[in-house]
Amino acid sequence: MSKHQNYEQRTEQLILPILEEHHFELADIEFVKEAGSWRLRAYIDKEGGITIDDLTLVNHALSDLLDREDFIDESYILEVSSPGLLRPFKKPKDYIRNVGQDVEVKLFAPITWEQDGEKYTDKEFIGILEKYEDGKVWIGFGGDDALELETKNIALIRKSVDF
C-alpha cells in the first residue's frame, strides 16, 4: 500500500464514526495533487442529498481529528463535498442504488453484442442498469435481453442525465 493510500484509509477510519452518527454515507476519499497543492477530499452523501450545513459539520469534525492524529506528512487542503450527480460508480452500493436508472457506460475496449436480432460493436453506450451482482452488471436497452459485463472491464459507469 502506498503512503497516499494509507492516508486515505486512515482518513476513512476517522470519518466513518462521524458519518454514522449523522446517518451520512461515505462515497469516496482521495488524496490527490492538483495545481501544485495536495488535497484530501472526502465525498459524502445521504438520502435526499447532502446540504452545506452537513458538509460544514463533517469538515469541522474531521479537521479536528486530522489535527489531533497528524499522520499526513505533506501540507494539504481538506475538502468535504458532495460526490455530485454525475459521480462514477465505485462501490457495490453505488451500483445497487442505481438499479433501474439510465447509465452511461464506457469500456476499456470495444465489445460486440446482439440485441433484438441486430449486432452492435462499441465501447461507449447508454442503457438501463438492470442488475448488479458479484462484480457483474446487466445493462438493458429496452429489449428482452440484457448485456452482461464484468465491472473490471468498465472504465466508467455513472448515471446518464439529459440537461
The tally of beta strands, per DSSP, is: 8
Number of helical stretches of at least 4 residues: 3
Largest sheet: 5 strands, antiparallel
What structural category do the secondary elements indicate? alpha+beta
Strand content: 35-45%
End-to-end separation:
40 Å
Low-pLDDT stretches are none
Q: What is the residue-averaged pLDDT?
A: 92
Order of helices and strands: HEEHEHEEEEE
Give the proportion of residues in helices: 25-40%
Protein architecture, described:
The structure is a single chain. By secondary structure, this protein is α+β, with helices and mostly antiparallel strands. Helix content is 27%, strand content 44%. The chain contains 3 helices and 8 strands. The chain has helices at residues 3-22, 52-69, 92-97; strands at 25-34, 37-45, 76-81, 102-115, 118-133, 136-140, 146-150, 154-159. The strands form 2 sheets. It has a 5-stranded antiparallel beta sheet. It has a 3-stranded mixed beta sheet with strand order 1-2-3. Strand 2 (37-45), helix 2 (52-69) and strand 3 (76-81) form a beta-alpha-beta unit. Helix 1 packs across helix 2 (52-69). The mean pLDDT is 92.
Please sum up the structure shown.
By secondary structure, the chain is of the alpha+beta class. Helix content is 27%, strand content 44%.
